[in-house]
Each structure stands twice: as C-alpha cells, then as structure tokens.
C-alpha cells in the first residue's frame, strides 16, 4: 500500500493542509486488480509530493510469475518515479546498543549512511532472462551495466551527503573483477575532483562486508551500486540491533521521493501484532525532512521514537531484559503519545 501525500493548493501549505491518499501496490494490488503496480497507483504517486510505502511481499504471491510478484511492482514504482538515489542510514542508538549482535564496543557509536544506486545495475540491466547455452543447457542471466550519467549523479548525491556528515566517502565496488565496477571506480574518482573537501576511499565489496562487522565505526558515507547496496544495507541494519529499525529515502532529480522501511513484510509473523513499526515511522520522518522540507516535524517524530525507547518500550526484535515487551500496535500508540507530549511541551 502506498500513501501519497499531496499538499493542498492553498498558497501557504502547512503540515495541517496535507491530505494523504492511499493507493494499492504489491500484494494488495495483485488481489484487487491482478497487477502489482496499477497505472492509477503509479500516476497518483507521480502527482504526489511524497510517497510512504508499506513493506511488500508475502508467501501468497511468492510463486507468482515474475511480472506478477509484489517485488516487481516495487521495482516498477522506483523506476516510474526515477528515484535513483536510495539513502539508508544505520545509526546505533545508545538505547539499543545491547540489541546488536556485535560486541558493545564494536557497535557503540556507529553512524553511517549507505547511498545505494536504485534504478540501474543488475536489477534493470539488459539482456536478462532465461535461455539455453551453446551446449543446450538451460541458463538464467542478468547484466550488470552502468552508464556515465548514472554513476555521476549518484556519486554527486553521495559526495553532497558526505560533505554534510563527517566528510568521508567510501565507494564500494568489485573493480578487481568486474568491468562495470572498474568503470564505476573511474567515474566516482573523476567526480571527486568537484569535492576536494571530501575524502574518498575505495573498497572491494567482499572486504566492505567484512569491515562492516569488524570495525563499522570506520564508515561515514558509503556509495555503491544497486545489488551491493541491497546486501550491505541489510548487513549494516543488524549492527543497529534490528532491520526493523531502518528507514530509507529514495530520491530523484526532481519529482516526489519514495520513503520506505528497508525491511520486507516479515510474512512469518504477519497478523501476530509482533512487527516493529519503527522503521516505517522513521521513514515517515525522512519523508517530512527530505520529501516535504519539514525538518522540524521530522525531528519531532525522531525524538518521539527515542522517547518511546527511553520509556522502555520494545518490540520482540529489539527486546532486552528489563524492558517492556509490546506489540506493533502498542509501540505505535506509545510513539504517538510521545509526539503528543512533545507538542504539549512546546506549547
Ligand atoms: C530492498 C528489498 C528490495 C530490493 C526487494 C523487495 C525487491 O530487498 O528494498 O532492499 O531488492 O531492492
Ligand atoms: Mg533488500
């Protein structure tokens, strides 16, 4: 399901004038319309100011043909909105340091940002498909391909982000083996000359995967391709305690941004009121900040999440002894109370 936020045509839009509309996509759309991304959903999303996306997927549709999978709808939505830059922050909150599977001194203080290229690379490259090789054996194949403009624009976004953070950018590739990565490294290095204040380093993806669990504090901003970013951001999320904590923002040159948790729909616990809603709530905060330019409102939501954690509320994935175990609904209600009390405090 997609919530598309459209500002009212009022000359002085404020957060009160937002009227969100809900459109189906993924499994909900398959059940309703037979396709994972109906045209009406894509066009409503394209007309919106920002889009909040619920996690997609589920056993029910797992065996569908590829064009009828919820995941295909998600890729079509990202492509249709041209949101090529996916920002995935991974921050270890002091409140959750004990939920990390890493030792406290390794996890403590980690604050990194994965900038993942989202509309290119092996996810979209052609040729792709199934066929037979010269020996007549069945094969499946995909193509990792990046053009100059695709690398240059994601590199610029990453340099800009690194500049506003701690000024360090690590570009992750597999340039010891793959031509697409050799080219990636060449273009990122060329763009670096526009950002003399940012320190650029390069790392092979296998080493980066290892360094992320060995000494994650060495990373500030990471820029990488679509598939490596998919994998490394899941890995980075576990440093923070749970993938249920990580929001993301997907942005294009212009047009609305797409905001979604980095996790899937956790079908194994569907309907049990166990899921952690914080990644989705924090995605709404990113929507306010990056999508609508409402940084103060975003901060209020982030503070409400911290306040809720400070008050000891935990879903199962981030639970540790001495805290209060709650379900998805109650966690959401507690965050709402914290937002309410911060508003009251401000008045
Ligand atoms: C993600 C997800 C998606 C991806 C899937 C659901 C298509 O894993 O957003 O990281 O691979 O991009
Ligand atoms: Mg993923």
TrEMBL record:
SMART domains: Iso_dh
Record's cofactor remark: Binds 1 Mg(2+) or Mn(2+) ion per subunit.
Compositionally biased tracts (Low complexity): 1-22
GO molecular function, one term: NAD binding
EC number of the protein: 1.1.1.85
Cofactors required: Mn(2+); Mg(2+)
Pfam families per the UniProt record, alphabetical: Iso_dh
Domain Isopropylmalate dehydrogenase-like: 1-335
Enzyme class, first EC level, given as a word: oxidoreductase
Associated pathway: Amino-acid biosynthesis; L-leucine biosynthesis; L-leucine from 3-methyl-2-oxobutanoate: step 3/4
GO biological process, one term: L-leucine biosynthetic process
Region (Disordered): 1-25
UniProt KW keywords: Amino-acid biosynthesis, Branched-chain amino acid biosynthesis, Leucine biosynthesis, Magnesium, Manganese, Metal-binding, NAD, Oxidoreductase
Keyword Oxidoreductase carried by entry: yes
Domain of life from the UniProt record: Eukaryota
Reaction(s) catalysed by this chain's protein: (2R,3S)-3-isopropylmalate + NAD(+) = 4-methyl-2-oxopentanoate + CO2 + NADH
Subunit annotation: Homodimer.
Family: Belongs to the isocitrate and isopropylmalate dehydrogenases family.
Protein name (database record): 3-isopropylmalate dehydrogenase
Organism name: Durio zibethinus (Durian)
Taxonomic path: Eukaryota, Viridiplantae, Streptophyta, Embryophyta, Tracheophyta
